[in-house]
Amino acid sequence: MTSLASQLGVSANVMTVYAWDNYTVFTPPTTSMRLLLAVGEVTPAEATTIGESLVASGHANTMIRIMWEMNGNWMQWGTQSLSAAQYISIYQAAEQAFAAVPGNQFQYIWNINAGTAEPGRTEFDTYPGDAYVSQVGIDFYDYNDDDTIPPILAFAAAHGKPVSFDEWGLNGTDNPGFIDYVASVVNNPANHVVLQAYFSFDGNINSLISDFPAAEAEYRKDFAGC
Prior knowledge:
The protein is α/β, with parallel strands linked by helices.
């Protein structure tokens, strides 16, 4: 968000937006920033409506996270609701509908939660195929282990895809080491990370960065040029 960037003394080029439901009346925000849009279990018709609204409002280059964090059980399109095959089918249909919108330059992010593998599933079994994915997205908080990141980077590299940290942040503790670790991954050119979006939110995960002075100082140091 622009306010977070201003607070931290860094620049912001992307605005994160969430569309959970009622997609037929989706209204993109009024901003010149590029959008990072998370959408849920959209039908092709809903994807078309959203895509047309994005293009008409000047957001033809939006990056779209289709049914993010699907490898967990906390989303309504997660492991408790959809099999891997069902998820892939819905994702592919949505991506094709978005891609058919005239004038679009959309990119599509297959966005997993780092380190989550429900019984009978893996992090990677919902991958919809290279033709349907522009970036491999990672959601990553400091309750996840650092060693969950290298396998995702390796998976993305094997498929020739760049990586984006679409949501990452703290979980109620002042943890500058976590900030520094993410920065070391993001700032390493070998990892092909094209985006990082810190999730500063004082809600159920308590990740508002201004509550954590040591972590905030580390963020300023590590991402001042971002």
